[in-house]
Amino acid sequence: MIPFNRPPATGEELRYIEQALRQEKLSGDGPFTERCHQWFEGHLDCRRAFLTPSCTHALEMAALLINVQPGDEVIMPSYTFVSTANAFALRGAHIVFVDIRPDTMNIDETLIEAAITEKTKAIVPVHYAGVGCEMDAIMGLANRYGLYVIEDAAQGMMAKYCGRPLGTIGHLGAFSFHETKNYTSGGEGGLLIVNEAEFANQAEIIREKGTNRSQFFRGMVDKYSWVGMGSSYLPSELQAAYLWAQLEHAEQIRSDRMAIWERYHSALQPLVLSGAIEGPAVPVTAAHNAHMYFLKVRTLEERAALLDHLKQSGVLAVFHYVPLHSTPFGQTMGRFHGCDTFTTKESERLVRLPIWYGMSAQDQEHVIDSVLSFFG
Known about the structure:
By secondary structure, this protein is of the alpha/beta class. It is built from 15 helices and 13 strands.
């Protein structure tokens, strides 16, 4: 069976993990964490970068940083992972879901303004498949209404919008290094990007359990103490060592995935031209990172048949999110503003094909042949 995903590995991970073990600094913010932070701050041109145990933790930190309070409203798409909403619901926020665009599966930037009320605190655009949302329009709204923007760039490392790295356009950005992402820190992991000076010091305190411990180790205070709200948001040094092995080969990994994405896209064009499927759309404003290759069939029933056909052919393809507003808990924690024109309909048509760093040409061809054979 060709799996949907294989975690990326460059061959250097074990060597760096052994180095971390010999350094006897395992609890976080050791030499490998510092290397990763410097890499992100250099390549993403952001004010500060903070590794976290997961993207979920990075989003939770963002909610704390903007001081989300019970009754605040946070606008986001319903077509996203539960962590996008949970991070703000944990602080008592009411989630306001807005419909998506059918081409990119991103939040429809033209529908956000109508969802803004006097209770709105933030907008959380989700860059689906590493394709950037229309951030100029979103930032324009945020500036006009005095709102925060937290980019959920879980899938967006090494992708750009209008030449700017995803995650660095809003006030804060969150990334994932889960094993299904382009880069991983050993199966789990995340990153918080701070783009505004007002958040830099507070993010450090929140990440260190609400203490000024980092200032203590820099010699800025003679002892550290509890100075604010926080939690344990440091990943281990072993996770940072694993990730560093991937960051050293970040461009190689990106190029390899792009080649696979382009191979799928080219080979499946006859099905697109015949109207049998729709392929992914990449606006001119976006430079994606080949995080995902998806196609859309005509109906939910056809999707089920295609997935079964691929499984019988030895290919594990999958669908994706169940829209949050349709879930039992989502209905209690938020509301859908406006009409659900595309969120549910498009989510029921989408199929994700296997793609991973190092995927063989033979496996790629088998996936392509299996899709083509379904449509005759």
